[in-house]
Write a structure and sequence with these properties.
The protein is an alpha+beta fold. Helices cover about 50% and strands about 10% of the residues.
Length: about 425
């Protein structure tokens, strides 16, 4: 293997320089052919250009390549991976300077575009004007901004201008829904996921890709409950809390979309948002359909939009209404979904200006109510001799009674 001219590139070099753990290593091979790598035992995996898996480590090794714009969208590129392509040729096609560095094992840093300087300046900057040829890079830069925000990274003004140019050009419309969702799902897992959407808003991409979210900007809420007033600001605050709570990505998505319905409130009714829940659920469905969001994500998003205000009022709801909420989540057969909803509701409640540390007793209360309903002795109810609908009604009443008794005990102890 030593006769190959191999360089560690991209994220592994970047994160090593930042002192962060390296999640995966990507390598570039200069001056070789696919046949040479195949002879050495490398396994080809690339469809669009030559990428191979190392026979032992299974890490990715790509032939150095150039690319040129040959059509619209992120697929519209022609690649050249001939042996005469240099390392510098390969690096110049990359998106950001901090991703355009390379290092031969044990050798010096190869940094033709000032990536190290930008790392020190905490700056996300494009490598060349060719950045504007690939609309997917708008999402990638926003995701890197979310990933490294905690280190103080921001997007360079000239890069943001190129992203705005892409947003205005119509090129974002060429992105496959699956790619948009893939980048968004990754961004939702980051430490500050709200930054992803903030950067997209800054460059005009939020209106193009997430119009349901963008429509929340400037929509006011009652100051008594939302000191931050603006609904999109609230969405960002809630998403930040969801990340601080370390919620799974599906719950973070539910937080992201829980208030979409407020954008469809008529201005004359502001700042009140009566019945925004059902309107919101429909908008979640529209967004999820367009971006081909996974079914379970969509389901939790629609349920959270529909029922989150019930959760906030849980301590004053009637037992029958609490059971209606529990039944909507199918807590008896799908117990795993309800805790995700409650977590999203807590992030919503705490995602308000000055309220990030507020307790949310509704979560504990509703968890206990679900347990009480679930623990009803069905065999005891059957002993009444009832069958069919009458038995079903009796079981339901037993569950409501169990919730009533639990609620009474809760109120006495709190």
């Amino acid at each position: 293997m030593s006769d190959l001219d191999v360089y560690l590139v991209g994220g592994a070099v970047r994160d090593d320089l930042l002192g962060l753990p390296i999640k995966e290593r990507d390598w570039v091979v200069v001056g070789a052919t696919p046949e040479q790598l195949h002879t050495l035992g490398y396994t080809p995996v690339g469809r669009d250009f030559p990428v191979f898996l190392h026979p032992q480590s299974k890490e990715e090794y790509a032939l150095a390549r150039t690319e040129r714009k040959a059509g619209t969208g992120y697929h519209g590129f022609a690649f050249n991976a001939a042996p005469d392509v240099t390392l510098e040729d390969d690096l110049v096609r990359r998106d950001l300077t901090i991703n355009a560095m390379a290092r031969k094992p044990g050798g010096p840093l190869v940094d033709p575009h000032g990536g190290l300087e930008d790392l020190k300046a905490r700056r996300l900057r494009h490598v060349s004007p060719a950045f504007a040829e690939d609309p997917l890079r708008v999402l990638r830069v926003a995701r890197f901004a979310a990933r490294y925000h905690w280190l103080g990274f921001t997007v360079a003004d000239d890069t943001l201008a190129l992203m705005r140019q892409l947003s205005d050009s119509g090129e974002l419309a060429t992105l496959a829904p699956e790619r948009i969702w893939k980048e968004t799902e990754k961004a939702l897992t980051e430490q500050t996921p709200e930054v992803y959407f903030q950067v997209l808003e800054q460059c005009g991409a939020l209106t193009v890709l997430f119009p349901e979210l963008a429509a929340l900007r400037g929509v006011p809420q009652p100051a008594a409950h939302h000191p931050e007033i603006d609904t999109l600001t609230h969405q960002y605050l809630a998403l930040r809390v969801a990340a601080e709570m370390n919620l799974p990505v599906i719950a973070r998505f539910a937080v992201l979309v829980h208030d979409l319905g407020k954008a469809s409130t008529l201005p004359e009714n502001w700042p009140q948002h009566i019945a925004h829940e059902m309107r919101g659920a429909r908008l979640v469905g529209t967004l999820a359909e367009r971006l081909r969001v996974p079914t379970e994500f969509r389901a939790l998003g629609e349920l959270t939009a529909t029922w989150h205000t019930h959760a906030h009022r849980a301590l004053t709801l009637r037992p029958a209404t609490i059971w209606k909420l529990l039944r909507a989540f199918d807590v008896l057969r799908r117990p795993e979904r309800f805790p995700l909803f409650l977590s999203a509701c807590e992030a919503d409640a705490r995602g308000r200006e000055g309220q990030a540390q507020q307790p949310y007793p509704q979560r504990t209360f509703l968890t206990g109510a679900a347990a009480a309903a679930r623990d009803v002795d069905i065999d005891a109810v059957r002993e009444s001799g009832k069958t069919g609908k009458a038995l079903g009604d009796a079981i339901e009443q037993a569950r409501i009674q169990a919730i009533r008794e639990y609620q009474s005990a809760w109120q006495k102890s709190h």
